[in-house]
Specification:
Layout: H1 4-16, H2 19-31, H3 37-87, E1 101-104, E2 119-122, E3 130-133, E4 136-139
Antiparallel strand pairs: 1-2, 3-4
Length: about 140
């Protein structure tokens, strides 16, 4: 009969091995010819239990990483929602709002190379742009 210290040493040795080595040990314990089949099964169960403990620990580490990453995603989502929530009023665009720029020479003339570049001109901000939308007169300077 083995003592508890010997069993503890054997378990620690098993847990220090990688998964493949433990699985090879299981097969070796089953196929030993100097013992009866029942003894082989008992010894192989020792190695299998060590393998299960090792895999359980690996699964626990992976689960902790997934939970951590889930909390990171939740935190980033909260930051994104708060950013969008507080930025939306600053970026509102009216439904039929005219652009602040106009393009010249939208159709390029192939014979005239000077017309092939995009020319943008800003509209004059000093003049009021009024429009009537559904019976509401709006002044661009006050929006």
């Amino acid at each position: 009969m083995t003592t508890r210290e010997e069993i503890t040493k054997e378990v620690n040795d098993d847990l220090a091995k990688n998964d493949i080595d433990l699985l090879v040990d299981v097969y070796e314990e089953i196929l030993k010819e100097d013992r009866s089949i029942h003894e082989n099964i008992i010894h192989s169960q020792k190695r299998l239990s060590s393998l299960l403990v090792k895999l359980s620990r690996q699964a626990d580490k992976s689960t902790k990483k997934v939970v951590f990453l889930t909390w990171v995603i939740i935190a980033l989502t909260v930051v994104l929602v708060m950013t969008v929530f507080f930025e939306i009023p600053k970026i509102t665009v009216q439904f039929n709002q005219k652009p602040y720029f106009s393009t010249q020479n939208n159709q390029c003339d192939k014979n005239n190379p000077t017309n092939n570049k995009n020319n943008f001109t800003l509209k004059d901000e000093s003049t009021p742009h009024t429009k009537i939308e559904q019976g509401i007169i709006s002044d661009k300077r006050h929006n």
